[in-house]
């Protein structure tokens, strides 16, 4: 007779479980938001974005590459692409955000619709046409906070380096966007993390040397070949594993199996 007392509790538990499952996907989605260095098709013929190779290193997740060539933190925002992502993610999903290549440049005399207002806080700039432009930090902080509010985890990734060996000697100095990325992560708080992708790629490229690395940049100093992009994707995984990021739980590879050292 004791078991009758237990049954209702079990029945409630059985009913409650599916409700919780509906909020998460059986297979979390990993959305990629970025520019040509991440996008399918890269920056044109002979190049490819690193996001195309990321799925080969992950298991138990579905990678959705929403990176688009030519975009910046500002234009990705203005085109409603972050809003679409915010409306799409569910609890347990991941969003990797990597911008910087189209965010520099001046707002005067001509605004290209991509350049951000320079600054590490909530500064604004007004273009000649009267458009109010926010900083990289503001655009990405707003996006990250809204994605996290939906239950997603956000990885802010520093931009890939331009060819660090283009002078014949390999060296790398991070640009201001790496610092901005760290500020975005601090602003967004729990649920946001940082991968210093630029530094991991640079370290790997410097160890490969100028001859190999020059061959990875077939058309200019920004866009990598498919083989180069595969190395760029591996460097991201190395950074993710070294940081013991939540997403690293879905890695097919161990930290030691990927070239390079943790920084
Ligand atoms: C991880 O392992 C998979 C399966 O062996 C392989 O295809 C992929 O290239 C590896 N990734 C890295 C970054 O080494």
TrEMBL record:
InterPro entries: GDSL, RhgT-like, SGNH_hydro_sf. Coiled coil: none annotated. Gene3D superfamilies: SGNH hydrolase (3.40.50.1110). It comes from the Eukaryota. The keyword Signal applies. Belongs to the 'GDSL' lipolytic enzyme family. Keywords: Hydrolase, Signal. This is Probable rhamnogalacturonan acetylesterase. One of its GO terms (molecular function) is hydrolase activity, acting on ester bonds. The keyword Hydrolase applies. Residues 1-16 form the signal peptide.
């Amino acid at each position: 007779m004791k078991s009758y007392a237990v049954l209702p509790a079990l029945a409630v538990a059985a009913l409650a479980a599916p409700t919780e499952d509906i909020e998460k996907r059986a297979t979390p989605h990993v959305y990629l938001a970025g520019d040509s260095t991440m996008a399918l098709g890269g920056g044109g013929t002979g190049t490819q974005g690193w996001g195309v190779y990321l799925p080969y290193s992950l298991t138990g997740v579905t990678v959705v590459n929403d990176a688009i060539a030519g975009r910046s933190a500002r234009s990705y925002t203005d085109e409603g692409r972050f809003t679409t992502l915010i409306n799409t993610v569910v609890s347990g999903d991941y969003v990797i955000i990597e911008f910087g290549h189209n965010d520099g440049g001046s707002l005067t005399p001509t605004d290209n619709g991509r350049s951000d207002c320079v600054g590490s806080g909530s500064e604004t700039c007004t273009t000649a046409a009267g458009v109010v432009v926010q900083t990289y930090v503001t655009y990405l902080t707003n996006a990250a906070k809204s994605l996290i509010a939906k239950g997603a985890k956000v990885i802010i990734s520093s931009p890939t380096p331009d060819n660090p060996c283009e002078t014949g000697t390999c060296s790398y100095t991070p640009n201001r966007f790496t610092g901005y990325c760290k500020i975005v992560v601090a602003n967004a708080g729990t649920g946001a993390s940082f991968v210093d992708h630029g530094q991991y790629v640079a370290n790997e490229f410097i160890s490969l040397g100028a001859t190999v690395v020059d061959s990875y940049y077939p058309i200019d100093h920004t866009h990598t070949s498919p083989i180069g992009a595969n190395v760029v994707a591996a460097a991201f995984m190395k950074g993710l594993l070294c940081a013991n990021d939540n997403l690293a739980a879905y890695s097919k590879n161990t930290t030691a199996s990927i070239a390079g050292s943790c920084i």
